[in-house]
């Protein structure tokens, strides 16, 4: 059995209904993520918290030093848990995430967080490219409605498309309940 590590991606205040970039289903996704984090802590599985900040305030969201960049209280890291601050969509880019995973002997990553079609997508694909086995907990991830070329895509469809792509070629996509059982 592979040694697992839990990657909790960008479950920050900015994505809550009170934030500047609210996501559809973020509260239930965070609640499921909190259950998975509690299980990981109980089993001694290392937890790696990812927090996004845009360097130099280059965007109106995830501004360093604002409440929006703080990790949501329900999934907040405990003392001693790794917190990696990233400035790019991919949590591996210009961070020590790979070194942190390798230092813990992680071979399989369990991924939860936000946004399904962006930062979750990037971390899953990068992890697999780096040789990790990936499991994505679909109901512990959230996203938002998108628009492209005059077509509005509801968050549920954006999320389903991302999860379908993972299941097609990147890893196991399962529910929180199935994972915890």
Notable features of this structure?
single chain; 181 residues; alpha/beta; Rossmann fold; 6-stranded parallel sheet; two-stranded antiparallel sheet; 8 strands; 33% helix; 24% strand; globular
List the helices and strands and how they pair.
Layout lengths: L3 E6 L16 H18 L3 E6 L29 E5 L10 H7 L4 E7 L1 H14 L3 E10 L3 E3 L2 E3 L1 H15 L2 E3 L1 H5 L1
Helix pairs in contact: 3-4
Could you characterize the architecture of this molecule?
- The chain is α/β, with parallel strands linked by helices and 181 residues long.
- The protein has a single domain (4-180), classed as Isochorismatase-like (Rossmann fold).
- Helices cover 33% and strands 24% of the residues.
- The protein contains five helices and eight strands, in the order βαββαβαβββαβα.
- The protein has helices spanning 26-43, 97-103, 116-129, 155-169, 176-180; strands at residues 4-9, 47-52, 82-86, 108-114, 133-142, 146-148, 151-153, 172-174.
- The strands form two sheets. The chain has a six-stranded parallel beta sheet with strand order 3-2-1-4-5-8. A two-stranded antiparallel sheet has the order 6-7.
- Strand 6 and strand 7 (151-153) form a beta hairpin.
- Helix 3 runs parallel beside helix 4.
- The chain starts with a strand and ends with a helix.
- The mean pLDDT is 97.
- Keywords: Hydrolase.
- One of its GO terms (molecular function) is hydrolase activity.
């Amino acid at each position: 059995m592979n040694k697992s590590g839990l990657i909790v991606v960008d479950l920050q205040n900015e994505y809550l209904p009170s934030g500047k970039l609210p996501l559809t289903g973020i509260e239930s996704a965070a609640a499921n993520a909190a259950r998975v984090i509690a299980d990981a802590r109980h089993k001694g599985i290392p937890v790696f918290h990812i927090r996004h900040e845009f360097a130099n305030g280059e965007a109106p969201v995830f501004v360093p030093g604002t409440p929006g960049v703080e990790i949501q209280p329900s999934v907040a890291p405990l003392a001693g848990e790794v917190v990696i601050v990233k400035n790019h969509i991919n949590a591996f880019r210009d961070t020590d995430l790979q070194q942190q995973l390798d230092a813990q002997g992680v071979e399989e990553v369990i991924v939860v967080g936000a946004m399904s079609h962006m930062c979750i997508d990037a971390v899953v694909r990068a992890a697999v490219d780096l040789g990790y086995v990936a499991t994505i907990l679909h109901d512990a991830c959230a996203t938002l409605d998108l628009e492209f070329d005059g077509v509005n895509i509801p968050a549920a469809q954006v999320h389903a498309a991302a999860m379908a792509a993972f299941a097609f070629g990147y890893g196991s996509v399962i529910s929180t309940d199935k994972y915890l059982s």
